[in-house]
Amino acid sequence: MRLVPVWTLLSSGCAPVLLVAGWAIAALLEGSAYDSATQTISVLGAYGAAGFWVMTVALLAVGVCHLLTAWGLRAATRAGRMALAGGGVSALAVVVVPAPNSGGDLRHGSVAVVGFTLLAVWPVLAAHRGRAAPWGLRPTPSLFATALMGLGAAWFLLEVRYQGAIGVAERLVTFMQSLWPFVVVVSCLRYSTATATATADG
Questions:
Q1: Distance separating alpha carbons of residues 8 and 72, to the nearest angstrom
Q2: Distance, CA of 19 to CA of 4 (rounded, Å)
Q3: Structural contact between residues 46 and 52, judged by C-beta atoms closer than 8 angstroms
Q4: What is each CA distance from 100 to 79, 86, 94, 107, in whole angstroms?
Q5: pTM of the predicted model, to two decimals?
């Protein structure tokens, strides 16, 4: 029996692709007025932005992808799956409360922080103790993933403080967070195949 259904490969794999495609296309629609290195993704999804609908659809799709992956990732712990699902709901909520054209917004910022936090801690929450688990659900890789996302967040805050490469830092962190579910799913499928092969050979 597989630890995760094969369709989770699609739901988890589409998340990073849709996210990157969304911000890339939305940035193209904004033109030279938008600087991807120094401006956030939220600017692309703000009311009145040229790429508003593109970014909105992309975030909605990413949120649904996370929800589907959390539903199918039955090899992970319940706490981890709930945190991943919460990250998906937060992506949907960000669409409901987009940033205003004038700049930052407390409601939008709060939802974004909650979403980031849930997607940063879900790898650790989803991990199983011991080595008898898929690689992506073992404590060491899971802790490393969460720590890497935490360092990315610290870098982002530093760039915000000094008005530097905010967009670069944000994109790196959000890409890592959207990619990790795919890494976990692949490791689960490989583990299932290896276990089945070992059982058949035994």
A1: 6
A2: 23
A3: yes
A4: 33, 24, 12, 10
A5: 0.92
Measured torsion, CA atoms of residues 45, 51, 55, 58, in degrees rounded to the nearest 10: 170
Give residue-wise pLDDT tens across range 81-121: 999 999 999 999 998 887 776 556 678 888 989 999 999 99
Q: 199, exposed or middle or buried, with CB in 10 Å at 0-12, 13-18, 19+? A: exposed
How far is Cα 19 from Cα 82, in angstroms, rounded to an integer?
21
d(Cα 202, Cα 200) in Å, to the nearest integer? 5
SS3 annotation, the chain:
CCCCCCCHHHHHHHHHHHHHHHHHHHHHHHHHHCCCCCCCHHHHCCCCCCCHHHHHHHHHHHHHHHHHHHHHCCCCCHHHHHHHHHHHHHHHHHHHCCCCCCCCCHHHHHHHHHHHHHHHHHHHHHCCCCCCCCHHHCHHHHHHHHHHHHHHHHHHHHHHHCCCCHHHHHHHHHHHHHHHHHHHHHHHHHHHHHHHHHHHHC
pLDDT tens for 134-182 read 999 999 999 999 999 999 999 999 998 898 999 999 999 999 999 999 9
